[in-house]
Amino acid sequence: MAAVVQTHERECAVCTNDFNTPKILPCGHLLCRQCVISWIKSKSDPGCPLCTCPIIDNEDNSSQSSANVVDALPTDNVMEAIVENASILVKSDMCTVCDDVTAEYICMQCFEKMCPSCMKIHRKMVVSRSHDVESVSTVTPERLAASRPALCADHVTEKAEFVCVDHNLAICTPCFSNKHRACLDVKSLDEKMKSAEDAIGSLKEKLIKAEGKLKQAIHNLNVRVQTADVTEQQNMALVDKTCDRLQSMVDDCRKELKKLISDSVSKFKKSLCDVQSELDKRLGKVTSHKHLVTRATTVRPRPALIHAAQTLTDRVNSLDLSDKVEAELLVTPSSEITKYCDDVERDIGDELMSIREIVVVEKPVLVFHENCGTNIRLTNFRKTARKVEPDKYSDGVIVSRDAMAVNVLYEVRIDEINTSAGSNLLFGVMGVPPTQLTLPSWSFNLKDSVFIWQNGVRYKGIVIRSNVVKALKLLKVGSRVGLLVDSSNDLHFYADGQDQGVAAKNVPQPCFALFELCYNVSQVTALPTSRRT
User: Fold this and answer.
1) Beta carbons of 134 and 105 less than 8 angstroms apart
2) DSSP assignment of 315-369, as one string?
3) Rounded distance between C-alpha atoms, residue 18 and residue 16, angstroms
4) Distance (Å, rounded) from C-alpha 452 to C-alpha 515?
5) How far apart are CA 25 and CA 23, in angstroms?
6) Which segments of 63-150 are extended strands (E)?
7) Which of 5-14, 62-71, 224-233, 484-493 shows the highest mean pLDDT?
8) I need a labelling partner for 522 at 20 to 30 A (CA). Which of 62, 312, 340, 474 fits?
9) Does residue 261 contact residue 333 with C-beta atoms inside 8 Å?
């Protein structure tokens, strides 16, 4: 069935009038030549007003004038012919001969509108008796354009019978014998028309196939988005079930896990949306060009079809008709959620047990005080300390929440080392409560503090023992570092559970275990305390 161009399809999107020299944009949409020029001049980054695709593909065109850029765009000769013939149909409803009588018929060859009386005369006249006269109500602009005979480019009154490919002109027999005798490639009009029709038909089939694939690909993406939504809901339900079991203490855990799921799915959906956006653009171009090709098939025989065939062939061949665009795979964080929930349950159990032990049996527990500066983030119920900016020197102090008990080992495990930083490790005890700690770390009262690092002790000039220095140099990820104050107020240093000897004598009491994450260590975790004799 021949495609019929609706009235609104003959209107320019910018001026809303019928097309005047319609130009084919890279996306396949049409605008009047002058409208494209005005649109380009009014925008810093002009895009199609219908789909926002760039009007100017090449950056090389930026130095050219707007008129030259627009003139380089192909003209839609088919739409131009349709608009021209549509204007003939709507120009006047009156008979051409009888000005005061409504026209009911139109001649498809001479385009004269006639009343019934004039139509009878028209059919009797020798010059017009062979013309095809039809009712005005049944004639479309496409049929009217297709009925026009191909005329010679030079002799506009002569019927064209050949096409000079060298000059891209439709010519009559006298022109073929005279002006185009030396041309190398002259074909009959019927042969060229058949070739153009075959090319247009092939293009239409190619575009229809590509359109179907793109629509199917977009449908598949929508299905994947729906699957992602279902997966998100299932994971949210898993989180809710776990959080309900852990009551009020897991509110923070609930938020973090939901964010994990939401971020994962959002990233996946964003990837799908990006792919869909790309496919939508391809589909838009394919659909636009399919309409061009479909309209072109309705106008024959006509030289415009020959020009359109080559132009559309070049344009379609330049389109990306692939329906393949890579999208990220949906990574379901269910295993992470399960593991995280198990860890939270265990940690909450440990925390509850620690609280019970503190209240009931008064067993010491190593938990860091929250006053630790802006560069340290505490997690795991203030048991894990991590540097937010590993390379930043200051704001790296973490202190035990409670004062150290005598003969109790306070240990931390080294979880992460920043190899790009220095090799020093600094820790020790502080004689002031953590509530009085001010940052940066070096601003609090040093006279009541002991700092241990590889080069010595910063407290009353006491030098650290060589065995402690040696142990410090062997620390790596997974190593345990511990501090213990004995009944004589001597500070012992432990490495991986082994006593490395006295690091400093006569430390102030009460004292608080202190660790400075200002060098290469960027994360530590507090371990359960143990009593030593």
Assistant:
1) yes
2) HHHHS-------------THHHHHHHHHHHHHHHHHHHHHHHHHHHT------B-
3) 7
4) 9
5) 6
6) 105-107, 113-114, 133-135
7) 484-493
8) 340
9) yes
